[in-house]
Amino acid sequence: MTEIFLDGRYIGGTKEPEKLVKDLRDKRRTGLLSNQLNVAFHKHMDEIKILTDSGRVRRPLIIIENGKPKITKEHIEKLHKGEITWEDLLKTGIVEYMDAEEEENAYVALRESELTNEHTHLELDPSTILGLSASFIPYPEFNRGDRVNYGAKMVGQSIGIFATNYLLRADTKSNVMVYTQKPLVQTHTHTIINYDNHPNGANVVVAIGCYEGYNMEDGIVINANSIQRGLLWSYMYRTYEAEQKRYMGGQEDVIGIPQAGIRGYGGEDTYKHLPEDGIINPEHRVESDEVLIGRISPLRFLGTMDQFITGVENIRETSVRLRHGDDGTVDRIFLSETIDGTKLIKVVIRDLKIPEIGDKLASRHGQKGVIALIVPQEDMPFTEDGVIPDIIFNPHGIPSRMTMGQLLELLAGKVSSLSGKYIVAPAFNPVPEKELRDKLKSHGFMNDGKETMYDGRTGKKFTAQIFIGNCFYQKLDHLVSNKIHARSRGPVTLLTKQPTEGRSKEGGLRLGEMEKDCLIAHGASLVLKERFDSDKTLVSICSECGLVAIFDKIKNRKYCTVCGETKIIDIEMSYAFKLMLDELKAMMIYPKVVMKEV
User: Fold this and answer.
1) Alpha-carbon span 433 to 449, nearest angstrom
2) CB-based contacts of 328: which residues, under 8 Å, 6+ apart?
3) Looking at the domain covering 137-233+366-475, what would its CATH class be?
4) Tens digit of pLDDT for each residue in 271-298?
5) Is 297 helix (H, G, I), strand (E, B) or coil?
6) 349 within 8 A of 326, measured Cβ to Cβ
7) Alpha-carbon span 581 to 109, nearest angstrom
8) For the domain 237-353, what is the CATH code?
9) Environment class of residue 467 by beta-carbon count within 10 Å: exposed (0-12), middle (13-18) or buried (19+)?
10) Residue 476 per-residue DSSP state
11) CATH number, domain 535-598
12) Over the stretch 129-167, which tens digit does the pLDDT of each residue have?
């Protein structure tokens, strides 16, 4: 008996598995069973899997019978006229949705010309094998596979217009580009998903060449005047929120300007920019750690006697401040209520992000890089027609990465800008290279995309001709202004007395195991002595038993809890080591510290 599983549960068996599967599929195609159902027969495991559960990735395929697709030209014409819909194709068994399990039983052809009698299904279009992000990439089949993968990942990181109602939203963090453009070289996906409302980059003139070594590795040389004209400008929005919480015993937070004398009061200057209600005004410029919403809260963990204590000593300051290292302008304020009926305030801060050295840019072909130099327009190379590139891209990034798709996009973008028409280049069915070359020639350019260029600083003609064209570039979310971080002195954690972690907490820059190995390998091991003393501390140790002694502040004396007042020596050690000694004692292990005279 062949076992049958429905959504992973065993429901029975059959002696005719192939007939059962065929019957189920026929019933689904005629509409007797739901088109959400998928069925697969795995011969090697001798089991039938029937799947109806949610969360499966399913995609449409055209059904093939006797080597011919069930969809005809008549169907396509009727679809265009609106006489029939996609649902009708599903109901009449012309198209069906397959999941990964059932696809194991299918033999899918990419194109109609490849069909044989053995095929069971046909792709609607070869480019549908790609996901949403990857389908934005033009000429992807000319790139190495991993580059298409990187390109798809970076499409998701690009800054554009993520939603047209972003001014009504209060996302934790979002980026919106100011001057977005539609790509000159598109795919079918751009039309299908209404890309015009959600563009995510700009068309730039790219010259492939070196510039004094400033664009070595993946450095990008960019035209300063292009930036001044608004190229790749964006706004970052970040939302801060405060809630007027209620506590047990009828106490609650108070939103307003904190009074002097309470715990954590910051002084008059800290709150001078706040209006009477304690909520900052829109369009006010704010700097790092500035108060946005003034708030005071009652002290928590009240004991039996403490609950009778009221007034100033039972209140602490809990104002909402701008993140450390950030600045910006108050964009908008939302006043609302939570589900519990408490007051909720959301303040959205915007910050203009103009491209600067260190910002990450990427084309759609996985060619990512950071801005390494911003050059004034008059120093940039120019063509005979006076065209000055926006970006100079390093030629060494092409041979090893094999992104021929980018070179074709540069050619196609150049043709598009000259002809004034968008070029559609989806996967497996793009505008051929020969056609692009012929069009370039008809516009009076060399058919290989190269042009004679001149040095902007000297006016001398370059000996080599330079490949120049139009390419769609994206600005990614990894902006240097959100990542730059340094620290001299600052806060430490309560438990280990080591510096705090993370940029927002004014944290230290960790020197880890690998960095330690580098210093030792370099022969600079003494540097480690000063590097690894962030939690240096003096610990009193009993010379008799080797345990940590106690310092009595009131009587100003040191003594050992085991041996009494014996010889007690102060030793310099890492506080983390002292913590480990305490943890060993908690595990009933005796950690004896043995001391010697040095």
Assistant:
1) 11
2) 236, 238, 285, 286, 322, 349, 350, 351
3) mainly beta
4) 999 999 999 999 999 999 999 999 999 9
5) strand
6) yes
7) 68
8) 2.40.50.150
9) buried
10) B
11) 3.90.1800.10
12) 899 999 999 999 999 999 999 999 999 999 999 999 999
Q: Where in the chain is the domain with CATH 2.40.50.150?
A: 237-353
Condensed to tens digits (0 to 9), the pLDDT of residues 249-260 reads: 888 999 999 999
Q: Is 368 exposed, middle or buried (CB count within 10 Å of its CB: 0-12, 13-18, 19+)?
A: buried
Cα-Cα-Cα-Cα torsion 178, 184, 189, 192, nearest 10 degrees, comes to: 70
Whether 44 is catalytic is no
Residues 6+ apart with CB under 8 A from 195: 182, 186, 189
Measured from the Cβ of residue 513, the count of other Cβ atoms closer than 10 Å reads 7
Spatial separation of the C-alpha atoms in residues 98 and 133, rounded to whole Å: 21
Of 346, 497, 505, 558, the active-site residue reads 346
Among candidate residues 70, 188, 478, 505, the one labeled active-site is: 478
Compute CA distances 362 → 132, 138, 154, whole Å.
Answer: 18, 14, 7
CA–CA dist 223, 316 (Å, integer): 52
Q: Which fold has domain 486-529?
A: DCoH-like (3.90.1800)
Determine the angle formed by the axes of helices 433-442 and 404-419, rounding to 10 degrees.
40
Q: What is the mean pLDDT of the chain?
A: 93
User: Which is nearest to 348 in space by CA: 290, 274, 283, 270?
Assistant: 283
- CA–CA separation, 535 and 492 (whole Å): 9
Residue 80 is among the residues annotated as catalytic for this protein: no
Residue-wise pLDDT tens digits, 473-501: 999 999 999 999 999 899 999 999 999 99
Q: pTM, whole model, 2 decimals?
A: 0.86
